[in-house]
Amino acid sequence: MTDFFRDIPEITYAGPDAEGEFAFRHYDPSEMVMGKRLEDHLRFSVAYWHSFAWPGGDPFGGQTFERPWFGDTMEAAKLKADVAFEMFRILGQPFYCFHDYDVRPEGDNFAESAARLDEIGDYLGEKMQATGTRLLWGTANMFSSRRWMSGAATNPDPEVFAYAAASVKACMDVTHRLSGENYVLWGGREGYETLLNTDLGRERAHAGRFLQMVVDYKHKIGFQGAILIEPKPQEPTKHQYDYDVATVYGFLKEFGLEGEVKMNIEQGHAILAGHSFEHELAMARELGIFGSIDMNRNDYQSGWDTDQFPNTVPEVALAYYEVLKAGGFTTGGTNFDAKLRRQSLDPEDLILAHVGGMDVCARGLKAAAAMLEDGTLEAMRSERYAGWDAPAAQKMLDGSLEAAAARVGDEGLDPKPRSGRQERLENIVNRFV
Q1: pLDDT in tens, 257-302
Q2: Residues carrying CATH 3.20.20.150, the chain
């Protein structure tokens, strides 16, 4: 026990009319939705980096948070873990996620960094066993240090590629030891700032070969979790090789990995790629590579990834509608890749941010489930494409361009436009949210 969250009670479900801040109004973990407990639908996870490692800086200002565990010692890392698991207990969070950089201080060399990761891995394992909290996924931070300034797997220096391989191997080993349910590759620096110094084909080939090595190692050690890629557009480089879901799928197909790797999709990154969250989720579902989500939001008046906690039920409902259509999570879950505003200094702020996000997600998922069970949206979608179920339409798809063209003259076709009914569909959604 620590005293960082002193006097903050465990958060329990108290219903929509609950008084006071420290209660769930919509998230009842045991509530049954579409035959499954709400906790098992949502599979909430806390992001170690934003909640416990981030100092409160932004592109224009430095540290605003003062935390007793900030420091480059293993003692500080263990105190950080103590506080983290205390927060998991208060919130009833079933999962957490981490980068290697979040949970241990970097050493003077790789061997020392790896030994520290092993040591803190044992400490985390003891806490997981004592509390029942599980690891949703681990990942290696290959973007913060200056060694990664020109990329990791895509770096022009082969020695950096080797260092990246060592970093991922070490983090995969610990993730495997902690029974992590996924391993994530996040390539924010895997891109370029100018083509003037970039061999685009070579970097792409190296990134593909690196991912093949990761998948091979997964099977070698018997890791049962999923390998996930998280698309990351616009920041911090001009171009990324993992820009969005469709781009990553093409990359996976090129290197024969479409059956091995799935997607961890973040709301904020979807927006930076010029898409909606639900678009990226639907695309991953249709391509068979849906895995997990990072739940947050951007400030739409800012042009960068602000990683705020979700607070808009209609947006979240449309996202979970696609998640449920994909069959829900298997190894994946809802990871709050979200951070406090740099002015939100109090321990209570950290707790209440998660409480609010969990309630918003619960409301969104329940609305999504209600829309699916109602069936109106899917019925109207099916009606719109009903013509394609006719034998003539199916025969046309199996035939030639000439045969399709001949139908116009042979059958006297003169198709008339039909309404897409968008406003009507939006009105239906608003009945539920």
Answers
A1: 999 999 999 999 999 999 999 999 999 999 999 999 999 999 888 7
A2: 32-374
Catalytically active residues are 99, 102
Residue 120 amino acid letter: I
Does 269 carry a binding-site annotation? yes
> Residue 205: enclosing H or E segment and its boundaries?
helix 200-221
Separation of CA 13 from chain center = 26
Closest Cα partner for 353 from 54, 17, 101, 117? Answer: 54
Q: Are strands 239-240 and 290-294 parallel, antiparallel or unpaired?
A: unpaired
Token pair 């068979």: residue = 288
**In the structure encoding, which two tokens stand for residue 342, read together?**
């740099």
Is residue 46 within 8 Å of residue 327, measured between CB atoms? no
Q: Is 307 annotated as a binding residue?
A: yes
Q: Which CATH class for the 32-374 domain?
A: alpha beta
Q: What is the pLDDT of residues 157-198, one digit of tens each?
A: 999 999 999 999 999 999 999 999 999 998 779 999 999 999
pLDDT tops 90 at residue 131: yes
On whether the CB atoms of residues 267 and 295 are closer than 8 A, the answer is: yes
Residue 236 has pLDDT above 90, yes or no: no
Both structure tokens of 97:
């996620």
Buried residues in 179-211 as b, exposed as e (16+ CB within 10 A): ebbbbbbbbbbbbbeeeeebeeeebbebbbebb
- The answer to whether the pTM exceeds 0.85 is yes
- Which residue, among 199, 203, 201, 212, has the nearest Cα to 255 in the 3D structure? 212
pLDDT (tens digit, 9 = 90+) per residue, 31-89? 999 999 999 999 999 999 999 999 999 888 999 999 999 999 999 999 999 999 999 99
Helix (H, G, I), strand (E, B) or coil at 95: strand
The reply to whether 230 sits in an annotated binding site is yes
Q: Residue 45 and residue 134: Cα distance in Å, rounded?
A: 9
**Residue among 229, 282, 293, 297 at smallest CA distance from 258:** 229
Integer Cα distance of 330 and 27 in angstroms: 20
The helix/strand/coil state of 184 is strand
State residue 291 phi and psi, 5-degree precision: -130, -65
Question: Does the pLDDT value for residue 152 go beyond 80?
Answer: yes
